[in-house]
Structure formats: C-alpha cells, structure tokens
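Message: Just now I want nothing more than another pair of eyes on a protein record. I am handing you a single protein, as its sequence and its fold in token form. As I understand it, each token names a local backbone shape. Take your time, and here it is.
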Amino acid sequence: MDPRAIRERAERIRQHVNPLSQRYQKPICPLDWGQIFPDPHRPLHVDMGCGPGRFVLNLAKRDPDWNVVGLEIRQPLVDRANLWRQEQGLSNAYFVFTNATLHLGTLFAPGTIQRLTIQFPDPWFKKRHHKRRLIQPHVVPTLASCLKPGALVFVQSDVAEVALEIAQLLGSHPAFTPPQLLDHNPIGIPTEREEHCYQQGIPVTRWSCYRRLDGA
C-alpha cells in the first residue's frame, strides 16, 4: 500500500475496538523471528497494546541491543508504525497486528520475553464491558509461560482501578513476585498518554513485578 494511504488510514482509525468481535477471534500463524530480526537472540521487550507505537520506536533507538515488539489490535496503526520503523531504519523494532489476549502464546515461545509493558490499556469503564479488557484471568498463565524467569513486568494507567486489577490478577499467580507500587516509570521513556497526564496533572498508577526465578 502507498505510504500516504497507510498514514491516512491510521488517522481515521477508531479509538476503541471490541476484541471480542468475530473478526478478532481468528487464529494466527506463528512468526519466524529469525526472519524479522537480524539477531533474534537479543533480549526481547514486548509492549502489549502499543497504540501508535512511538514508545516502541523510541525504546528501540535507545536500546539497540534489544529487540522490541509492539502488539496492537488496530491494524492501520500497526501498518503505519511499521512504515515509521522502516523509514527510521530500526531493524530491532517490529509491530504485530494481533489480539494479544488470544495470541500471545502463539507469537512467543516459552521463556522468551525479558521485559513486558502494559501501558494505559483501554479501561472499558462499563461493568458489562470488563470482559473486553486486555488482561483477563485466562491470559495470566500464558504471560507466565512466555516470560523468562526474572523478567520485568511494568504496568501503568491513569485509571487506578485498571492498573490495580491487573496487579491483583498477576499477584494471585505463583509465577509472579508481589506487585510493588511505583512513583516513576522504570523504563525511562514516556508514552504519549503518559506525557499528556504529566501536562494535565492527571495521576498515574504504576507498579511492577517479576517473573519468579524458580520457574513456578
């Protein structure tokens, strides 16, 4: 597709996408990371629900010895982010159009993710829509499997309920250390939403935990 058309499609994309709709339930094929990254054995950072993708691109620039993958359910944003990646010559960044709630275990082999970020996920405020939230109980064992022992998990949101709900879900699984509240972003690179919160004085709830080393 023409780069201009890719950018225009991304500008028109809807803010909210229902991950339970039938179009997002289709199975996907595993990716050959050896064909995507020049060195697939570098440490791997995955950003779930990466949105426009600027955080992933900035992280890939800062940490050239890491591979950085953004997962996003809105395909026009993925197409534009991969276009930006190509234009900036970032061979250690890549974006995948996927329903991460379903396909994380298909995309990543056990024990391969060394850092995971979940940042400002769609809160789906209405109670009947909570089942659309990114992290559901059935996702937690898959996360535990995909993460390398000792891997960092960092979560932040300007909706405290959402951040704390994810903390409760992961904290109840024996593979994770108890979540610890934070007063800063340990990755050191803000997302666009995070910068907006700084500018508007909106409080952000942050926490982190680790995949246990004992392989629970």
